[in-house]
Write a structure and sequence with these properties.
CATH class of the largest domain: Alpha Beta
Largest sheet: 13 strands, mixed
CATH topology of the largest domain: Aminopeptidase
Structural class: alpha+beta
Number of strands: 13
Number of helices: 9
Helix content: 25-40%
Distance between the termini: 57 Å
Strand content: 25-35%
Order of helices and strands: HEHEEEHEHEEEHHEEEHEHEH
Length: about 300
């Protein structure tokens, strides 16, 4: 008698692809990023059955991405898997703490309860702005309107980039390890200078399959932001388009209405929305936060913005 059995299309898939296909997830690591973590910081990848959590050190944060096969597994095991992942890091590696760029919209109510138990707090709301058919453009060269210049960042620029990022982000200067992640995780790390060579900004750009150009980070000093923001965006769009980015994406926080408006005026459209959840990475700091919450009450105002 012939017997039939259901074939698992992911039976031979690696952990990254399996995580990407799970239905309950907030997981946007590229395969390249996942492999970099496997090679350099394997302690930050936790695989428990079909559940996966992976921590990406970036700019002195630990970005945690997770994926689960079903809601019940998420409910039962998120806190355990999340805790194992974050314990693979340290305050030295992620002094700015843990962040989940949460996007699992259908399961937000459950996630908020689990996140509260894990001492995570709601942070900024954001929107991904996509431009799906960027027209072909000429090579923008190394000059931006207004006489500004763009050049590749070198090892000699590490302190400058740390200072620029901290001043724009309003955070303590990046550690050496935090600066390392900007260099290693960007395909192009560019310094923006005046015509006389004074640094006034920095941009981190990369690509993703299929044909995406990603504007990962833009740091512009307040003194030049109004003058330079639009010309720099036009330069980045042209640069990415000439380097395989026929589609382009930028994540912008909703409290930055001027930047959202600029990208929309430039042809980008709102796509995925989400919210950050953050907490310290040091176990002692986490325990104090958990103890403080035991006597409190979780109150939710409003819904997804």
């Amino acid at each position: 008698m012939v017997q039939f059995r259901r074939l698992d299309p992911l039976a031979n898939a690696g952990p990254w692809r399996r995580a990407l296909k799970q239905p309950v997830k907030s997981f946007t690591l590229t395969e390249e990023q996942f492999k970099r973590i496997e090679e350099r910081r394997p302690q930050l990848i936790v695989i428990d059955g079909e559940a996966t959590a992976a921590g990406r050190p970036y700019r002195d944060f630990l970005e945690v991405h997770y994926a689960f096969p079903e809601v019940q597994e998420f409910s039962n095991h998120f806190n355990e898997v999340f805790d194992r992942c974050t314990r693979g890091s340290s305050k030295q590696e992620a002094p700015r703490g843990v962040v989940i760029h949460f996007r699992d919209r259908p399961n937000r109510a459950l996630a908020e309860t689990l996140f509260w138990e894990s001492a995570l707090s709601e942070g900024g709301h954001w929107v991904e702005l996509d431009y799906l058919t960027v027209p072909e453009q000429g090579d923008p060269g190394d000059t931006i309107e207004g006489g500004f210049q763009v050049r590749d960042a070198t090892e000699a620029d590490r302190d400058t980039i740390s200072r620029l990022e901290a001043e724009v982000a309003g955070l303590p200067p990046l550690t050496s390890g935090g600066v390392d992640t900007l260099y290693s995780d960007s395909r192009w790390l560019k310094l923006v200078t005046t015509s006389s060579g004074v640094p006034v900004g920095c941009v981190a750009l990369r690509t993703e399959s299929p044909g995406w150009g990603i504007i990962e980070d833009v740091f512009l000093l307040q003194a030049v932001r109004e003058q330079l923001q639009a010309p720099l965006l036009r330069w980045m769009m042209a640069f990415l388009r000439n380097n395989g980015g026929r589609r382009q994406r930028r994540r912008v926080y909703l409290d930055n209405a001027a930047e959202v408006a600029l990208y929309r005026e430039s042809g980008f459209s709102p796509a995925e929305t989400g919210v950050d959840y953050t907490r310290p990475v040091d176990p002692a700091d986490v325990e104090r936060k958990v103890e403080d919450r035991k006597s409190g009450t979780m109150i939710k105002f409003g819904d997804w913005r």
